[in-house]
Amino acid sequence: MTSSKHVIVGLSGGVDSSVAALLLLEQGYRVEGMFMKNWEDDDDATTCSAEQDLADAKQVCAELGIPLHQVNFAREYRQQVFDDCLQEFAAGRTPNPDVLCNQHIKFKAFLDHALRLGADLVATGHYARIQPNGGTLHLCKGRDGNKDQSYFLYTLGQAQLARTLFPLGELEKPAVRELAEQAGFLNFDKKDSTGICFIGERDFSEFLARYLPRTPGDIETPDGEVVGRHKGLAFYTLGQRQGLGIGGLRGHEGATWYVADKDPARNVLVVAPSHDHPLLFASGLDAERLHWVAGAAPAREFRCTAKIRYRQPDQACQVRLQADGSAEVVFETPQRAVTPGQSIVFYDGDVCLGGGIIRRRHEVAA
Questions:
Q1: Contact at 8 Å (CB) between 317 and 327?
Q2: CA–CA distances in Å: residue 240 to residues 75, 107, 236, 260
Q3: pTM (predicted TM-score)
Q4: How far apart are CA 341 and CA 343, in angstroms?
Q5: Is residue 48 annotated as part of the catalytic site, yes or no?
Q6: N or C: which end of the chain has fewer CB within 10 A?
Q7: Choosing from 61, 140, 197, 304, which is the catalytic residue?
Q8: Is 304 a catalytic residue?
């Protein structure tokens, strides 16, 4: 049993955060829940989903006998997450709102609010671990390699880690669902959310069109042949195959088209006719808006592994910090669909060193 510290758990209505609260209660913490409303929309599907999530959170708290706070961070979310994402989409880049949400909402707005309510610590249902090493707290991968969420948490620093608990870090998802069922949680078999956090399961293009104008332009092959029209660069991401509307072209029978590049200056979407076309690969990248979990980079130049997307296997690379605060990353093996606006996250084994935003990719030398 641990000392009776006061912990507020961010309860989403999902099974992971519910079991996080259960485990902390069993460990002797004084536990309370907090349900965050981060998005306001008049869409019926979104409203119904949020109401169900709140109902699930209330049922969990009733089973555990703990209070549930409710807080609205929709204004903060709109200003610090959504508006930033819109700017990135408008520039033809592909942002990662989940990273921004963790940075500005869950481990800033939520953490600050919980501390004002008298909490000593906050907790979430993320699959990650915090391990002390000397005077430094390491952010480490979750034991469940299929669910590890350290990729989305690389913007956390020492101050946040010192106030945070990740109770699920040592568990695998099937065990979490089993604990939830044993505890009588009605959400024990609830489907994991897979949509972009502020969009949910809705059609991405339809949602984005509410906020950004459609700016149609040409779709070209790497040789400059016009093969179709796109509805706006913001609505596509590198490596995308579905939704291009250019199948069965004369002279390109059998080709399967993928988004290979964007040319904002000409408003042109470049597509390649095969999954492994050279234009889809990059030998390295430049990253900006760097953050280091320990407070500083390991060195001005170092070798490590990195991920350029969630659940990607670790890729060996060399990192060189630049005078302007950016980083040049060179991969041991060329990487497919390196996407500006997405995050690159650096690792030393299980330890998440930090990461940054992909600014530019390096073409593979011919």
A1: no
A2: 32, 31, 7, 8
A3: 0.94
A4: 7
A5: no
A6: C
A7: 197
A8: no
